[in-house]
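Final report, closing paragraph on structural work. Over the funding period we assembled a curated collection of sequence-structure pairs, and we close with a single example.
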Amino acid sequence: MKSQRLAVGNETTFVLVFDKGDEALEGINAFAREQRLVAGHFTGIGAFSDLVVGYFDRRRRKFERIQIREQVEVLSLVGDIALDGEQVRVHAHVVIGKADGTAHGGHLVEAHVWPTLEVILAETPEPLRKRFDPETGLALISIESEGGT
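Its predicted structure, as stored:
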């Protein structure tokens, strides 16, 4: 994966271009840790050779893993970056298109790039924090502290 800073201001914007075989979520996580990002959001397009998405089963409070083992187009990749304790956490959802024109999507668990993935990532200046929600069993972004409404 390669990256380039695009702009500096209230938000710092980067472009991440993934190579064939790169694992997308792992790469975004690694970039966020290396840059010491405390908050951000991103979008992306490209293609995967295979991927795993998740669907959250509310009753079981667990993600069901859905494997897709074929070449697909990334129609939309969206996500955010926040702190969970002191750890950087990337949360991403993806919609992919298959060769027959059908679309599938969900919570991105893992994906291998082929031939490329282009991600535009904007770092925001104030940290976002996740807090454990006992009702769902998930770490959710909390904006109840200073500045939140």
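Residues 2-142 form a domain with the 60s Ribosomal Protein L30; Chain: A; fold (CATH 3.30.1330.80). The beta strands are 2-7, 12-18, 40-57, 62-68, 72-84, 87-97, 103-123, 129-133, 138-142. We thank the funder for supporting this effort.
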